[in-house]
Structure formats: structure tokens, C-alpha cells
Design brief:
Elements: H1 9-17, H2 23-41, E1 44-47, H3 49-64, E2 76-80, H4 107-114, E3 118-123, E4 143-144, E5 147-151, H5 157-164, E6 170-175, H6 181-187, E7 190-193, E8 213-218, H7 221-231, E9 261-264, H8 275-288, E10 294-297, H9 305-328, H10 334-344, H11 348-368, E11 374-378, E12 394-395, E13 398-399, H12 408-414, E14 419-427, E15 433-440, H13 445-459, H14 472-479
Parallel strand pairs: 2-3, 2-6, 9-10, 9-11
Antiparallel strand pairs: 1-3, 4-5, 6-8, 7-8, 7-14, 11-15, 12-13, 14-15
Length: 480
């Protein structure tokens, strides 16, 4: 019999609405799962048992009383520890905020509560989200649910692990250089990076740089869409927020894949890619290509993306961390220090050049879709590696010039401000989760979700491309 915590979010919500599942039962099931497997994985940084149980009882009573129910009514949610949660410890993975308990919710958290979501837990992240390996000096590393000695990716690693193992049905993530997409692929779950402004992000240190976005993580596209509905808002505190939220459908029905023209790119024409991962992707494409009307092998023009990304990312880091570096250097980790110090070396002409490059890249990327309906590419350049390593130092014998370069499969697309779903696609050559990105231009969020929804169903028909699942019994045994 399926345990409540292993139900899809959509099914759990349907059962709650029909009075066939109690929110209390669901919360208890999730708390139990956390107790069984998180000792092995370390995904949860704060657990609100009392508050979630109380909220679950209130949610149950609302169902019994016939009150209007939000889209997330009674569902336990994990919140990435970069988002403030009222009354629940929020550290940003930093020693500077080790004991911080906010007196307010971030706006997206407030929206989730307003739609009936129960904030059960906070999920681990690298310090201030700096890094694609989830570890920090407050909580330590989070292990991969398929091999706890390996990384789960980052910076939304705790959310990816919590969702993959049924600790929560849904969790929030954020994405700049791939912080949502990398852990989604390493953990075998779905992550959605929306167009800027679709989910308001009011905490960017530089509001007019829209590359960092918020998005949902889940075990399926349908579940991710469910959380997205609660995250959507038109909030003027985010200058990129718009009425695009009205274009997202209430339910997904999919599209006819057989009518679509798909561009396939192994490395985006610019990203380092492990040779074995390249072979894995080629094999996946042979199956994926058969679903579509036309499959093109074509790279977008992302000329000069690496240096431009480093510079614009540095602007955010200097704005956020310059004073911390000056006053609290000993309490900061190497990623924050490295990014901020390199940022301070750039000049105004450097920043102007990066903005010009990004503008051209964005325009060319939109034009790329004049001849293709969707772009499909790998979601990560390598297989998950030991979490004792902060980053990938070399690929195919080539030394990476910065700790971010191995993430070019995701950050190169970030510069084009796309809509992108990270979709599980079986396993790689080492038996670890493998993911693909389903990508469209800015503003194509509804279409990208519909394509991913239909493609997910097609991939599920084969064990070679279906979503992999972690061995929960093995994880529970290791926790004892």
C-alpha cells in the first residue's frame, strides 16, 4: 500500500479534497519519513513538527466544514533555507545567521501559506546559495539519495533530496547559474526555472538583474505546476513581475509531441561536457527524437557567455557581500569570498561589456526559436561526484578556469532568460540520475510546461528513460 508521503502532490490534494486523506495523516507520514532517512542524507535544517501538526488539524477541520480550499490545501511543503519563514529558523547556510528566526515570511512563502500549504521544514543550501554542492559550516553536507557519499547538487540540494525521498511532496528552489536545475537532475526530480517575474523574487540584491529566479521542485511536472500555481503572483516589488501569470493554465493537458520541431544540443556550443555524459545523452536522444515531427542538431549562439556571466554574477555578489567580506570574513565560506573578491577586480567597462554581450545573446536566443519549437539539452555536464569535493576541477582532462565553469550547461542558458524544465530521463553510465532540460524563450512558460508534461509521460514508458527512484530501505538502514 502506498504511504501518504509517497503519493503525488496532485493525488494527495485530490484525496484531501474528497475527505479520503487527512492532512494530519499526510503530515505525520512525512515526519516519519524524515525521521527514517534524513539521518543519512541531512537535507532538513529545521523541522516544525508542532506548527505543522497544528496547521494540519486546522486544514482537516476546514475540509470537514466545507470551507473553500487553496490549491495546496493540507500539503506539507519544504522551503529552501534562503527564504525567510516566520517563526522557523532561517540561516541562509551562513554562520552569520546561525540562530536567526525571522518574524515574517518571504512573499513567496506567504503565498504558499495562503493557498493552504503547510510549511513543514527548511531544506539545506550552500552559504547564501553560492555553489552547486550543498554544504555549509552550519549544517554540513547533504548527500545524494542514490549515493549519500556523492553530492546532490546545489544550491537547492536539500529541496531536491527531500522531494526525491518523500520527506515532502513539494519544495521550493531558486536558480541563477543552475541552482534549481542541477540538484533536480542529480536527485532524479523535476525542477522548473520560470521566466523572470513569473514567480516574484523581491530579495535580489540588484533588482534590475533578473537572472536569479524562484521556482518549484517536485517528483513530476504536474506536481511542480501545482506548487507553481501558489508561487505565481503579480508583485510590483519585483520590477520584472507582469501579467504573464495569467497565461499559466490551471491544469496541464500536454501537447502533441508529433507536431513539434525540436532542436537538440549536446553542449550548447560552449559548455564543457564529460565524454561519457555526451554518450549517454546521444543514446537518450535516439529515443526522444522519435517522439517529435522534426529533430535538428543545432546549437544556440552564446558567444562570450562565460566571462559575461561571471561579471554580471559578480555584480550581485559585490552588492550582497562586500560589507560582509570587509567585516566578517572569518565567518564566510570560500565560495562567497572567491566570488566577491573576483567581483571587486572588475571595472565599469567590464560591466558595460557584459551587459552588451548579454543583450545580444538574449536577442539571438529568442531568434533561435524561429526555426524550432523547443530546445533539449543535458542538464548537467558530469555525473554526481563526491560531496567532499566542492566543485568539478576538470572535465575530460581540461582544468576548469573557475569553480563555476562546470555549470555552463545551465548558466549559459540563464543569460538568455529562458523558461526551462529539468526533466528526469533515466540513469547515466554510473547508474546515477540523468536529466535533460526542456527549454523555450522568455515568456514561453505555459508551452514549455505542456511540452515537458507530455514528454514526461512518453519517457515513463521505458525503464531507460523513466524517473529513477532511490532505495528508501537502504537509506533508512544506513541511518540507524
Amino acid at each position: 500500500m502506498t504511504k501518504p508521503c509517497d503519493l503525488s502532490a496532485l493525488e494527495a490534494r485530490r484525496l484531501i479534497g474528497r475527505k479520503d486523506l487527512s492532512p494530519v495523516e499526510l503530515v505525520e507520514s512525512c515526519i516519519s519519513r524524515i525521521g527514517k532517512v534524513d539521518g543519512t542524507l541531512n537535507a532538513i535544517t529545521a523541522l516544525d513538527e508542532d506548527g505543522s501538526r497544528s496547521a494540519a488539524k486546522e486544514a482537516e477541520q476546514a475540509v470537514m466544514d466545507g470551507e473553500p480550499l487553496g490549491v495546496l490545501h493540507g500539503l506539507p511543503i519544504g522551503i529552501k533555507d534562503l527564504q525567510a519563514t516566520k517563526g522557523l529558523r532561517t540561516t541562509w547556510g551562513s554562520l552569520l545567521y546561525e540562530d536567526h528566526v525571522p518574524d515574517h515570511d518571504d512573499s513567496v512563502v506567504a503565498n504558499i501559506r495562503a493557498e493552504g500549504g503547510i510549511i513543514l521544514a527548511k531544506t539545506n543550501t550552500p552559504e547564501f546559495g553560492a555553489g552547486a554542492n550543498t554544504t555549509n559550516r552550519v549544517f554540513g553536507p547533504t548527500g545524494n539519495p542514490f549515493d549519500p557519499d556523492k553530492t546532490c547538487g546545489g544550491s537547492s540540494g536539500g529541496s531536491g533530496v527531500a522531494v526525491a525521498t518523500g520527506m515532502v511532496p513539494l519544495a521550493t528552489g531558486s536558480d541563477h547559474g543552475g541552482s534549481l536545475r542541477t540538484p533536480a537532475t542529480f536527485c532524479g526530480v523535476v525542477g522548473f526555472r520560470p521566466s523572470p517575474g513569473l514567480v516574484p523574487r523581491t530579495t535580489r540584491p540588484v533588482a534590475l538583474l533578473p537572472m536569479p529566479v524562484l521556482g518549484p521542485m517536485a517528483r513530476s511536472v504536474g506536481d511542480a505546476h501545482l506548487l507553481l500555481q501558489a508561487q505565481l503572483d503579480h508583485d510590483k516589488d519585483d520590477p520584472f513581475s507582469s501579467d504573464d501569470v495569467l497565461r499559466i493554465p490551471d491544469t496541464l493537458s500536454g501537447v502533441d509531441l508529433g507536431t513539434l520541431r525540436v532542436a537538440v544540443s549536446a553542449d550548447l556550443g560552449c559548455a564543457p561536457l564529460d565524454n561519457e555524459i555526451s554518450k549517454v545523452f546521444a543514446k537518450k536522444v535516439k529515443r526522444i527524437g522519435s517522439f517529435f515531427a522534426e529533430t535538428q542538431t543545432r546549437d544556440p549562439d552564446l558567444t562570450d557567455v562565460h566571462e559575461a556571466f561571471e561579471i554580471l554574477r559578480a555584480v550581485q555578489f559585490v552588492a550582497a557581500h562586500k560589507e560582509r567580506l570587509e567585516n566578517n570574513r572569518d565567518q564566510l565560506g570560500p565560495n562567497v569570498i572567491n566570488n566577491t573578491e573576483r567581483g571587486l577586480e572588475y571595472s565599469l567597462p567590464d560591466v558595460a561589456w557584459a551587459h552588451k554581450v548579454q543583450t545580444g545573446l538574449y536577442t539571438r536566443f529568442r531568434a533561435f526559436f524561429d526555426d524550432a519549437d523547443i530546445l533539449i539539452c543535458p542538464a548537467a555536464a558530469v555525473s554526481p561526484f563526491p560531496h567532499a569535493d566542492l566543485f568539478v576541477e576538470e572535465i575530460n582532462g581540461e582544468k576548469m578556469p573557475t569553480y563555476m565553469r562546470w555549470l555552463a550547461m545551465t548558466y549559459a542558458l540563464t543569460m538568455a532568460l529562458p523558461s526551462a524544465v529539468c526533466l528526469p530521463c533515466g540513469t547515466d553510465h554510473l547508474g546515477m540520475p540523468f536529466g535533460i532540460q526542456v527549454v523555450g524563450p522568455i515568456g514561453s512558460d505555459a508551452f514549455v510546461l505542456e511540452v515537458a508534461f507530455a514528454l514526461e509521460q512518453a519517457l515513463a514508458q521505458s525503464k531507460k528513460t523513466a524517473r529513477p527512484k532511490p532505495d528508501l530501505k537502504k537509506l533508512a538502514k544506513a541511518a540507524k
